[in-house]
């Protein structure tokens, strides 16, 4: 007998056990309900019974968790189904094991990649960190404002997973600003041609359908006017005579400050290379104070702080840098390294995921994300990261060779 059986969800194609070499990767089923309805795909007509198994990460093996009901027509097995109930949030590799009337049992691999379906139960809404603007900002009617944020979620959905709404009446009515868009952490809002005070609400959905909301600081929409130097805005407390960009950030430092920052950075980088870490920290802080837009100074400052033993300070510097440069992958990557040293693997994993999202070719971020994923039993994520490392690692790279070795060893 050649059993051809698999778990299917909705209209998913059946997986044939008779051709293991061509076996596709498990299908991921995401939902915020703990009950997963599963149906059987192709099965031989003389199937006697079918067991449902789930992979137990604790014992690193498959355990039985129920039996499918089998519907028969004239004594021949036709189809069947079962309801799997997740005990807690997480990923559950699931597979079907069939037995025929003669006692033959369907054979499958022993690792988690032998799953037919991975049921992902997640009922936690995404968490959103507002990056910019940091405070109330004045913009002109029909102008624009850059919104930036970070989404933290175990199962993020990037494509068409975010929306922006605006209210002029303290939340009584909300106006949709376009349709859904990709959650890439930034959105340039075109402000309506009217004056008043508005609040912007961001909504983000994850793959499981959970919804998270965040409010940005108030937008004060009014026509531009000339102000005397030193006059302060009643709402924001800022000097109205000082230029403010649409994103709410102050103007670039003057030429003398930029020159001083470059000199501090040059000396700080030299001190860092010479392992004079305390000296490097002082000089690099001066560089970022003189010109906060000097990106490389922030990066080296985080390294100097970490080497000086101030891991918390390094993390805080990196968070400040990420708020200024939300699209630069090396900042969350460095933060992930610091968090690993602080023994915070969950936060480090989220940081590496952010770096991988910003730069899909970042070999080091994918390598360390794979390492942390293995520690939590997430072999699917680790294998995906190893494939990226193999693809983008430089020729002759030891990391690329190790990733290729791990992929071969973990093949079901």
Protein architecture, described:
By secondary structure, this protein is of the alpha+beta class. The N terminus is likely disordered. Helix 3 runs parallel beside helix 5 and helix 7 packs antiparallel against helix 8. The longest helix is centred in the middle third of the chain and has 19 residues. The strands form 4 sheets. Strands 11, 13, 14, 16, 17 and 18 form a 6-stranded mixed sheet that branches. It has 4 domains: 115 residues, Immunoglobulin-like, CATH 2.60.40; 95 residues, Sandwich (Immunoglobulin-like); 75 residues, Serine Threonine Protein Phosphatase 5, Tetratricopeptide repeat, CATH 1.25.40.10; 86 residues, Serine Threonine Protein Phosphatase 5, Tetratricopeptide repeat. It is built from 9 helices and 18 strands.
């Amino acid at each position: 007998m050649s059993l051809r059986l698999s778990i299917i969800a909705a209209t998913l194609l059946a997986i044939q056990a008779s051709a293991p070499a061509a076996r596709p990767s498990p299908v991921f089923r995401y939902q915020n309900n703990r009950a997963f309805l599963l149906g059987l795909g192709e099965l031989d007509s003389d199937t006697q019974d079918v067991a449902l198994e789930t992979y137990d990460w604790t014992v690193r093996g498959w355990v039985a968790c129920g039996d499918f009901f089998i519907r028969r027509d004239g004594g021949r097995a036709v189809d069947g189904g079962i309801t799997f109930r997740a005990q807690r949030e997480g990923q559950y590799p699931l597979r079907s094991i069939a037995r025929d009337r003669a006692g033959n049992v369907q054979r499958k691999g022993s690792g988690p990649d032998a799953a037919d379906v991975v049921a992902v139960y997640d009922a936690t809404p995404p968490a959103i960190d507002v990056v910019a603007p940091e405070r109330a900002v004045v913009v002109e009617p029909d102008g624009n404002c850059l919104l930036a944020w970070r989404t933290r979620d175990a199962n993020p959905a990037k494509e068409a997973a975010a929306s922006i709404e605006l209210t002029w009446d303290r939340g009584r009515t909300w106006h949709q600003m376009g349709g859904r868009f990709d959650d890439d952490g930034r959105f340039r809002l075109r402000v309506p041609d009217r004056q008043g005070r508005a609040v912007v609400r961001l909504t983000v959905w994850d793959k499981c359908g959970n919804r998270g909301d965040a409010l940005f600081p108030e937008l004060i929409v009014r026509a531009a006017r000339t102000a005397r130097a030193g006059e302060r805005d009643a709402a924001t407390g800022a000097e109205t005579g000082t230029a403010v960009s649409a994103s709410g950030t102050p103007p670039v430092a003057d030429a003398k400050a930029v020159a001083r920052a470059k000199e501090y950075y040059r000396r700080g980088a030299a001190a860092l290379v010479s392992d004079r870490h305390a000296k490097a920290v002082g000089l690099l802080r001066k560089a970022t104070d003189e010109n906060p837009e000097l990106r490389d100074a922030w990066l080296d400052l985080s390294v100097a702080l970490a080497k000086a033993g101030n891991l918390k300070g390094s993390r805080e510097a990196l968070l400040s840098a990420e708020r200024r440069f939300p699209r630069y992958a090396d900042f969350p990557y460095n933060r992930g390294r610091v968090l690993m040293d602080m023994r915070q693997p969950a936060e480090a994993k989220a940081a590496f995921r952010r770096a991988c999202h910003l730069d899909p070719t970042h070999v080091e971020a994918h390598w360390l994300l794979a390492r942390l994923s293995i520690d939590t039993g997430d072999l699917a994520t680790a294998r995906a990261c190893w494939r990226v490392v193999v693809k983008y690692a430089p020729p002759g790279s030891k990391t690329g060779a190790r990733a290729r070795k791990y992929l071969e060893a973990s093949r079901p």
